[in-house]
What we know:
By secondary structure, the chain is of the alpha/beta class. The protein contains 2 helices and 6 strands, in the order αββαββββ. It has one domain.
Amino acid sequence: MTQHTHKNRDGESGNVLFLILIAVALFAALSYAVTQSSRSGGGDASKESNLIGSAQLTQYPAGVRTALVRMIIGGADVATLEFNNESMGATNNFSDCTSGYARCVFHPTGGAATYADAPKDLMAAGTPGTWVFNGENEINLIGTTAGSDAPTTATADIIAFLPDITLSVCQQVNTSLGISGVPTDTGINFATQMMNVDGSTATSLVGSGTTATIGEATTASSAGLDGEPYGCFQDTATSDYVYYHVLIER
């Protein structure tokens, strides 16, 4: 009787051990599945964030462009547009716009466009980004191109620039356009603001003396931006990833 009881207990112990091993195996499999799901979810979240970021980049300048079109239809001269805004501080704000504000893109009685810094999540520095608006450059195969990397007052496009965005957002913008990688370019003026600086001096096109053509065929890497009204390139001088968006083709 005692021997039979021992055999039953041995069998029960074996069954319990087997069940424990199965439980351990299932737990390990579940842990692996959760880990993989988390990793996959993180990648999807990052991709989704880049998609949202690239959409924000394209939508804001499009709104400014609409305001510019209304101004031009109303008789505004493209060559004397003023992108003064209140975020500039003590200078280059609305008080420096030409009297009457008819040329002032962001003033309520001018173009009535809304100025807003770019969200910090789009920027490499992690702080809100400042948009630059000027008529110092041109896009190859957009409007009329002067060529030789030297736009003129007749061919310079009005362009919005956002310097120093993140690489991932830059890549997403170009991917949506079917552009592989990030083209490099040099000499592009994305620093000069097209503003009235003292209330009396009208802004001008290619007034800085520093001009260039985005996507010109003479620069092999940037040729991928030929004919693209918006896109992203890396500036060779600063290594910044720069988003551009044509507001007025000329």
